[in-house]
Every structure is written in C-alpha cells, then in structure tokens.
Design brief:
about 35 residues; mainly alpha; about 95% helix; transmembrane helix; membrane; transmembrane
C-alpha cells in the first residue's frame, strides 16, 4: 500500500512539473512573438 501511494505521488509530481514547463514555454513563445 505504501509503495503504491509513493508511486502515485511521484507520478503526480512528474505530471505537475511537465505541465508547468509546458505552460512556461507557451507563455515564453507568446512574449517572444510580441517582440
């Protein structure tokens, strides 16, 4: 049970980091397009 819980937490953290990077790149591209 503890192992599954740690795996789920690890996956959630990984997904959050991935989404954060994706949003950051998207915003960066919009800012760059303005200039």
């Amino acid at each position: 049970m503890s192992l599954w819980l740690s795996i789920y937490i690890y996956i959630y953290i990984y997904i959050y980091i991935y989404i954060y990077i994706y949003i950051y790149i998207y915003i960066y591209n919009i800012i760059c397009r303005d200039y």
